[in-house]
Amino acid sequence: MGFGNMNKMMKQAQKMQQDMAKLQEELANRVVEATVGGGVIEVSVSGKQELLAIKIKPEAVDPDDIEMLQDLVLAAVNEGLKKSQEMVAEEMSKITGGLNIPGLF
Q1: What is d(CA 26, CA 102) in angstroms, rounded to the nearest whole number?
Q2: Cα(44)–Cα(53) distance, rounded to whole angstroms?
Q3: φ and ψ of 59, to 5 deg
């Protein structure tokens, strides 16, 4: 491999790194929402996989069945995190061209 090709690859890698850093900042401000139980539980999750909000409609609360409420909240949080991770992976693949680089995000 010639020096010119190596220099070109280094510049491309630096640009990719800059683009990824910029995207990570943008993703931190993006929010995905997930609902479960026909919409009685809704969560909001950032692109940094941070849980931002949980909304519980009154009809989801049954004092005689707290376990159902706990299961719904857990399912909603997991779905929100999954959606957030999928969003990040999709946006990152636009920059990396589908390269699977372990530990990248």
Answers
A1: 21
A2: 5
A3: -70, -10
At 62-86, the pLDDT tens digits run 999 999 999 999 999 999 999 999 9
Q: How many domains does the chain have?
A: 1
Q: What is the pLDDT of residue 103?
A: 54
**In terms of C-beta distances under 8 Å and separation of at least 24 residues, what long-range contacts does 19-23 make, across chains too?**
19/95, 20/92, 20/95, 20/96, 20/104, 20/105, 23/91, 23/92, 23/95
How many angstroms separate the CA atoms of 26 and 64, rounded? 43
Structural domain harbouring 84: 3-96
R_g (Cα) of the chain, nearest Å: 20
